[in-house]
Write a structure and sequence with these properties.
Strand content of chain A: under 5%
Number of strands of chain A: 0
Shape of chain B: rod-shaped
Order of helices and strands of chain B: HHHEEHEEEEEE
Shape of chain A: elongated
Order of helices and strands of chain A: HHH
Low-confidence stretches of chain A: none
Distance between the termini of chain A: 56 Å
Helix content of chain B: 40-55%
Oligomer: heterodimer
Largest sheet of chain A: none
Chain lengths: 94, 219
């Protein structure tokens, strides 16, 4: 029903959750919400991957695949804003 | 439909990867490592998305067996990158605070050292703890390595008393006065001075006092 790698990912996500929470609460970045969204999305996707093996396969599978672009776009928004801010701060490209 | 999601994710991951890689290349030395970890995490997700997109668009499933390895490494790399960035930010804040404190200390020291009036810190027993160059000049102070204090050929007397002071410059604990007449007496000369004093701590026990000294013509 589930693969070892999926279980390993879920364990890792649970183990790393306190570090993510601790770091994100203290991180002084204006767009850290996007990272938070991406991390939450990844956690949810991992959970859905395991859940789809037991219950409501179509729903959880669709949700899992829907979360992929959500996570990716969140990270892309964070990265572009981060780059723009650091470039304007350092005056790069001027 | 899932193929479209994967394709969108792939493009977004690529954008994020390029932005963070550029940020890592151009970052200051201290911030480079965490940004490279974040870039590596995104590189793994580009690999995963490429694999998924190729699979769901029915192109090939050749790299699918390796996808899990990349997916497993994503979260630890992301966590380490963020944690490293946060630690770097804290270090930068500490360095900035230290620099600001040093600058402030330097500025205050320069003000006191170059002030046109004498400024001294006097302990309860009449021991001079600090004397700026003007006080050293007026009271002819010399460093005394034995007591880690100063020696002088004379003492500062109150103008209206004949009681010999205990130390070179003696102020009672908690005593406050403003531009009172004193005389610096040495075996060879008498120099009239105007002294002001205020305790370093306003509440008892007052401890040391801050004394300002001005030379004056009238004794």
């Amino acid at each position: 029903m589930y693969t070892i790698s999926e279980l390993l990912m879920l364990t890792m996500a649970l183990a790393l959750a306190p570090i993510f929470i601790w770091t994100l609460r203290r991180l002084e970045l204006r767009d850290k919400g996007f990272i938070g969204l991406a991390v939450l999305g990844t956690f949810a996707a991992i959970s859905f991957t395991i859940a789809e093996g037991y219950w409501l396969y179509d729903v959880f599978n669709t949700l899992e695949h829907l979360l992929e672009p959500v996570v990716a776009i969140s990270l892309a928004l964070f990265a572009t804003r981060f780059l723009r801010r650091t470039r304007s701060r350092t005056g790069a490209g001027q | 439909m899932t193929g479209v999601f994967e394709a969108i994710a792939l493009v977004a991951y690529l954008v994020a990867l390029v932005c963070l890689a550029y940020g890592a290349v151009t970052a200051r030395t201290g911030s480079k490592a965490p940004l490279w970890f974040l870039t590596a995490a995104l590189g793994l997700m580009v690999f995963v998305s490429t694999s998924n997109a190729l699979e769901h668009l029915n192109i090939t499933a050749a790299i699918d067996p390796f996808e899990d390895y990349a997916e497993i490494l994503f979260l630890p790399l992301l966590a380490y990158g963020l944690y490293g960035y946060q630690v770097n930010s804290q270090n930068a804040q500490i360095a900035n605070a230290r620099h600001a404190a040093e600058s402030e200390h330097y500025m205050l020291t320069e003000i006191v050292e170059n002030a046109p009036i004498g400024i001294a810190i006097v302990d309860v027993g009449g021991r001079i703890g600090y004397a700026n160059p003007e006080v050293r000049r007026l009271l002819e102070l010399e460093d005394d390595p034995l007591t880690v204090g100063f020696t002088s050929p004379g003492k500062v007397w109150r103008a209206d008393t004949s009681i010999e002071p205990v130390g070179i410059l003696t102020v009672d604990p908690g005593e406050t006065f403003d531009r009172e007449h004193f005389v610096f007496k040495t075996p060879h000369s008498e120099v009239p001075l105007l002294l002001s004093a205020t305790p370093l701590h306003p509440e008892p026990p007052h401890g040391a006092s801050i004394v300002t000294i001005l030379p004056t013509c009238d004794a």
